[in-house]
Amino acid sequence: MPTKVVIIEDETDINEALSHSLKHEGFRVWSEVDGRRGMDLIREKTPDLVLLDLMLPGIDGIELCRLIKSDAVVKGTCIIMVTAKSDESDVLVGLGFGADDYITKPFKTRELIARVKAVLRRGRLREEESRDVIRCGDLLIDVLRYEVTHAGDRIVLTATEFRLLHFLAGNPGRVFSRDQLLNQIIGDNAVVIDRNIDVHVRAIRRKLGAARAHIETIRGVGYRFFSQP
């Protein structure tokens, strides 16, 4: 079955060019120029990937990204932000809400197609990967055994450290804010102290030793995990 792509872009010439290029590559493509109608289209078509402009009428791209990732039906959809904004804070906000990648205008069609295929490939690998065992090079996270090893050596983590590492490793490339990590890993009823997540990350990095580079700090936002640091 052909891969389904929805384009949400209010500049008609760019929208049409993207549609033409993706159809030429064999994708099934639908497009919209309005954010609100775009969300309706995404729910209707349940695409594999959304190309999403940041500056949109109706609902802007950041809010639309948030809506996609909070929707039970389409939250697994891959998202690439296509934007004229190159400011780091705008990009990081989009990534923090769950976008998989971004590309700034102007861009070359060949580069965009390569990004689309790479994001889809990573998405399929995540779907196929067992959530019980995550392997990243020499780092192995086994949730059934509640065990972490690196190059065969066991790494002893606390329960919270294990949950944090497993969650990040299970969502490689995604940027998560400290609040998101607190809610996912520790829970709303926990006693939260200032920079609680930072303390746990520092402890995990210390214990991981040579594998510490898997966890990257995104200044002003939070953390993300790289499969291949």
Q: Strands, helices and their partners?
A:
Elements: E1 4-8, H1 12-24, E2 28-32, H2 35-45, E3 49-53, H3 61-70, E4 78-83, H4 88-96, E5 101-104, H5 109-128, E6 133-136, E7 139-142, E8 147-150, E9 153-155, H6 159-169, E10 176-177, H7 178-186, H8 196-208, E11 215-218, E12 222-225
Parallel strand pairs: 1-2, 1-3, 3-4, 4-5
Antiparallel strand pairs: 6-7, 7-8, 8-9, 10-12, 11-12
Helix pairs in contact: 2-3, 6-7, 6-8
Structure description:
With 229 residues, the chain is of the alpha/beta class. It folds into two domains: 4-128, Response regulator (Rossmann fold, 3-Layer(aba) Sandwich); 133-225, Arc Repressor Mutant, subunit A, CATH 1.10.10. The protein has eight helices and twelve strands. It has helices at 12-24, 35-45, 61-70, 88-96, 109-128, 159-169, 178-186, 196-208; strands at 4-8, 28-32, 49-53, 78-83, 101-104, 133-136, 139-142, 147-150, 153-155, 176-177, 215-218, 222-225. Strands 2-1-3-4-5 form a five-stranded parallel β-sheet, sandwiched between helices. The longest helix is centred in the middle third of the chain and has 20 residues, at 109-128. The two termini are 33 Å apart. The model is unreliable at 187-192 (pLDDT under 50).
